Amino acid sequence: MDGEADRYDALKLENQVCFPLYACTKELVRQYGPYLKELNLTYTQYIVMMVLWERERVSSRELAECLHLDYGTLTPVLKRLDQAGYLTRERAAEDERLLTLTLTEKGRMLKANAVSIPTAIAEVMGLTMEEFGTLYGLTYKALRNMEARNHEGGK
């Protein structure tokens, strides 16, 4: 009987790496909530703004790839950020299906209000800088490996 029980150990929730990653991600996004509420941004809007703060101008295709989001998710987010005056959306001349997104002055000013958020979130996580770096590195390594497998036609 023990052999039969051992056979299914891999299916126990406590033995899954996906579950603590999922639960941690949910909690992490929740922790962002009060900070983002002050900026009147959702988490998805915030990560869009981080890309624009870094690049100033980006195509919708580049943004979707960078954030691992599809156009269906991005479209309403970009519309709301445009309506709020944080970015402009223009059809790309070379491909009208694509948008060119440009940070506005109002969007630049929002950056100053957001600058303390990463430090606050790092404190909430309670990790040392070394642990934070290890977590970051391993998470991105796993993501790259899974994406490479998808591109190679893996399950």
Explained architecture:
The protein is mainly α and 155 residues long. It has two domains: 2-114, Winged helix-like DNA-binding domain superfamily/Winged helix DNA-binding domain (Arc Repressor Mutant, subunit A); 116-155. It has eight helices and three strands; from the N terminus they run αααβααββααα. The protein has helices at residues 2-7, 18-39, 43-55, 60-67, 71-83, 105-114, 117-125, 129-151, and strands at residues 57-59, 87-91, 99-103. A three-stranded antiparallel beta sheet has the order 1-3-2. Strand 2 (87-91) and strand 3 (99-103) form a beta hairpin. Helix 2 runs antiparallel to helix 7. It starts with a helix and ends with a helix. The relative contact order is 0.10. The mean pLDDT is 92.
